[in-house]
Amino acid sequence: MIRQNQKALNLILVLTDAALCFSAMPLAYLIRFLGQRDYGHQVPLSFYLRMMLAAVPVYLLLYRAFDLYTSFRRKRIINEAGKVIQANFCGLLLLFVLSYLSKEVHSSRSVLLLFAVINTIFSLALRVTLRKILRIMRKAGRNLKHFLVVGWNENSANFCRRAISNKALGCYIDGYFHDGGPQRFEEAVPCLGSLAEFENYLADHPVDEVVISLDYEDYPRLQHLLEICEKEGVTSSLLPFFDKYIPARLYVEDFEGMPLINLRRIPLDSFMNSFCKRCFDICGSLGLLLVLSPLMLVVALLVKLTSPGPVFYRQERVGLNRRPFLMYKFRSMKAEQNGADKTAWSTREDDRRTAFGSWMRKYSVDELPQLWNVLRGDMSLVGPRPEIPYFVEKFKEEVPLYMLKHLVRPGITGLAQIRGWRGDTSIVERIKCDIDYIEHWTFLLDIKILLLTLTRGVVNRSE
Fold this sequence. Notes:
Blueprint: H1 2-33, H2 45-65, H3 77-101, H4 109-139, E1 145-150, H5 154-165, E2 171-177, E3 191-193, H6 198-204, E4 209-212, H7 222-232, E5 235-238, E6 251-255, E7 258-262, H8 271-306, E8 312-318, E9 324-330, H9 355-362, H10 370-376, E10 380-382, H11 389-398, E11 411-413, H12 415-418, H13 427-439, H14 443-457
Parallel strand pairs: 1-2, 1-4, 2-3, 4-5, 10-11
Antiparallel strand pairs: 6-7, 8-9
Helix pairs in contact: 1-2, 1-4, 2-3, 3-4, 6-7, 8-10
């Protein structure tokens, strides 16, 4: 069964991590000192290897603490990469402490930093390789996880459909139990009987996991079904009928011994995550303002020369916690707007645009002054795009979950922009991207979006 396979895989992963961690140190030492004349006068390699004898077990504990030894099946690689980086950062701090306690004043901090980088690369490469191997095996019908579905409705049908269509997940649906008998379903998933027959089937057939998907009126039977799973020692999962109200990540608090589910706790609610993102925004926006200042000066002169009116355009937008702020852009339209900019989007054929303004919009040059908004704290480098108040009031009544985008700072670029949903495109698809970003935020995701913006998000294809 899959449990034995997972245990074997975890053991292989732990041993390989230990070997790679230990071997990363001599490699770092070699890179640092190879070819230098004073090579023989440095602290010997044996000092660093003795340090690793104490550090490797701690590294493995850190990896376990950061949840790096659980199944890859349902984890995103970008989230796992973030945890690998965090674990290695903590390990690097440990090495600095060990180096200090050893009282070896000539130990090289460069070696320790190189080790941290090399070990991070080794760990990431190992996990990417294992994922690829496991996906190949699962597509070939090996290393499958067997599921039973209890209850049949739209949610359970969607679960089966997604499990079957994505063979890389390695999920095999043995069948489902439903009081209404076999249901129409385009995939080959058999009905194994009624809910009353579930207990006998589970006792006689090996199953890895049971997915319980009950309608509202059947929820009184949930306790009995869970007790059956616990009695047979089978993992159970709940696919609730109110799933559209539940975020991708649930946060459960202990309220005087009672579990309290917070439906809208997001990664950026964490002070440390928010602090790191803000520090990155300040450094990034300040650096970009300095680097791009010659370009911005040229653009400002061209705006002034090509049409009468101010260089910058200020417009009220709605930001974090629904607070309004003034967003800055290079003016791309004629100065006389007559209030039309407050209730309408600009389109490619908009006659209010100037010739130079159309070029700026196509290549997103008009957005550069928003770096000042980022430095001020109105915006972030990455986040949902802010809207004008008129559209906020309009969309909050028409688009489900629209107002959730105001839980974080708006951004110059975002997940929707790199996926092609920018300008005059579907607001529903944009909100889906925004919520996906908010619920799955990581620092690495921000880096990924910024890098992809250079190739996908700079040129506005809707212009």
